[in-house]
Amino acid sequence: MKHHIKTSSIFIVILLLLPGCDSFLDTVPDNRTELDTQEKISQLLTSAYPDANYALIVNAMGDGISFRQGLSPQAGYNQYMFNEEAYFWRDLPSTNSDAPTGFWNACYYAIAGANHALAAIDAANNPEQYKYQRSEALLCRAFAHFLLVNLFAAPYDPGTFNSAPGVPYVDQPETKVLVSYSRTTVEYVYARIEEDLEEALKNLPLESQFKVPAYHFTDKAALTFASRFYLYKGDYQKVIDLTSQIVPVPVKAANGNVSATDPANVWAATYFAAFKQWPSNFSEISAQFRMASNKHNFLLRETYSLLARSWTCQYGTMSNTLPSSTVRNITGGYWPFSSFYSTAFRDAYYLGKFTEYFFYTTSTTGTAMIMFPFIRAEEALLNRIEAEIHLEQFSRAINDLNVYYRQRSGSASGTISSAYNEATMVLTQEKINAHWTASLGENFLKQYNAFGAATWSDDKIALMLTLLETKNAEYVQEGFRWFDILRYKIPVYHVTMNNQVQTLLPDDPRRMWQIPESAVDWGLEANPRN
Q1: How far is CA 500 from CA 72, 83, 507, in A?
Q2: How many Cα neighbours within 13 Å face the side chain of 224?
Q3: CA-CA distance, 212 to 355, in Å (whole number)?
């Protein structure tokens, strides 16, 4: 059966090609929308990235927040409504950018921009001239579909048929107001993403080709995204091959650690978000974190969002929900961001990764925006560690973990620049197992058997728990934890203001965002809700 999505992306593309009213009026009508130069196609490709993010909703849906006693919800403010509805895993009908429907629209608008660019390149007399722009467009199309299928459909399960409904994979520019689409299957969507990725990887754009590389799919951003895709797909050797083009493979030194001068550690010191060097106050962390010139930002985009206000909401990060506590991590050292910003809003905690830009459209109203990091450098190393654990390359995974924690462990609490202690912080399999002694007998991995974990060894379980905890801390309040909750079947427990516990188990269909009502009205199958 064919279904329909309401779309008018052709009109959006026409508008995006116009730099301003004056130049539009001065342009010969027949030339206004001709995509016949590299400059015009590059301009169009700026619209091929989502201008919305997923973090506000999935943060509230996930396991990193709790209710804050005594703070009353403020009716009429979107972020409070989104926060409460998402916390209780209810569907959000709003079309605001932070809501699922807003994100769906943003991704399909981005896909439309990519498709129009690809059509123009294919029609050009010299398509080889546009090979890097073609790769960027393919990457944009693949990335938007990847986000959509992972939020609006069942998680991909390696080794199974993945026959659950996916999302429409749109690969042609729409020239009609109504276009027929099918949800197809998760397997089909992943296959199409892989086709686009493999084609794009043949001619990756380089950083030198862009004025602001962090705003585009450069080679580093593309390889990291590809490693994420193959990680989710279960092709773990491919993950290692891709990430090793970015991050050097470390070598264990005589003392059991990886030397500070090892190329992998030099790389991490260069590309990680430098929390150890940044001032510990709220505004300075945010100023550095969102900066396009800082090398940790592989793909940074401006998005319409109220995320920067989320720490004032009823349900938020509390001292008891901070990942791994804010005191010591598995090395015995302190996180460099251990001093979370504690607000006057009922003991809420916030790291200060986001600062809102507010653009007034009238004297009293306007639009809130933030710079959102869709891909960070740290992910390349963390993806490789995860793949190494799956392949039971435990010594390699531990080497990479030691590279990570050299940048993320300090010897003193509350001192943002405290040094890594070479003698005490090095991780070994024995130290990792000892850290998880109480969890090795019973844990969510064994209970819900994600990736066949019920039969894993204690060494493998302990390493995977370490990796998941590490990622949770690294990406706190960025929303990235949600994808691991889905993939690893992590149950979520939310406490209500009446001290009742509500549970979102791995088989609960509410873990999938609901297909937008407008798309359902045009024939797309809604996700189940019971």
Answers
A1: 18, 18, 21
A2: 22
A3: 20
